[in-house]
Amino acid sequence: MRGHDETRLRERIATLGQSLFDRGLTMGSSGNISVRLEDGGWLMTPTNACLGRLDPSRIARLDRDGRWQGGDKPTKEHFLHMAMYAERPRSEAIVHLHSTHSVAVSCLPDIDPCDCIPPLTAYYVMRVGRLPLVPYHLPGDPALGDAVRGLAGRHSAVLLANHGPVVAGKSLEAAVYATEELEETAKLYLLLHGRNPRALTPEQVAELEARFPRD
Ligand SMILES: O=C(O)[C@@H](O)C(=O)COP(=O)(O)O
Ligand SMILES: [Zn+2]
Description:
Catalyzes the decarboxylation of 3-oxo-tetronate 4-phosphate to dihydroxyacetone phosphate (DHAP) and CO(2). This protein has an 8-stranded mixed sheet with strand order 4-3-2-1-5-8-7-6, with helices on both faces. α5 links the parallel β6 and β7. The protein is an alpha+beta fold. α2 (78-87) runs parallel beside α5 (143-152) and α3 (100-106) crosses α6 (172-191). It has 7 helices and 8 strands, in the order αββββαβααβαββαα. It has one domain: Class II aldolase/adducin N-terminal domain (L-fuculose-1-phosphate Aldolase, 3-Layer(aba) Sandwich), CATH 3.40.225.10. The chain binds the ligand O=C(O)[C@@H](O)C(=O)COP(=O)(O)O and zinc ion (ZN). The site of zinc ion (ZN) has 6 residues, from loops.
């Protein structure tokens, strides 16, 4: 990617990170964001950085083999992002947050691990689709990469048990919007608990997936 495009992407990561943080979608220094570069490398948010206060020039740059090239030390989940990109060649960006309602769902004992949230709305199906649960691992555990690798080819979003969502998109904006939609649908799901909500039918879901492919 040409220099000015990379500069612009760094600024977009910082702007969207601040927007997510300011709206309470992730707290403290939780969460991380990455973007694929045209030369095969990646930009990734630094480890222990607050997404609300990112300095664009200090965002980490990794080469196509995942080696840290510059900026601050990348997120400890860099291998998790790399595993997801490896399975999703059309994905250009990945967002991981500790968004409260999504994390709450990830802690429930009785969710379907193949599909954690029912298809309550059309927009959820269009932006997120089926959401599998990844068994609990220590944050930064390289085994998380292997666990995600097995699912990411078929799913643009996964939910890490007792941790939070990881969402890929065909652009940085698409990944952010999908993460926001997941969080709102997790909130709806919890609001509707015990009320036997009517989800979309398999036919309605299939029609949406055919008309609105994600990436
Ligand atoms: O939960 C964790 O520790 C990480 O997944 C996370 O959200 C923040 O880690 P860094 O990106 O290394 O700061
Ligand atoms: Zn995390």
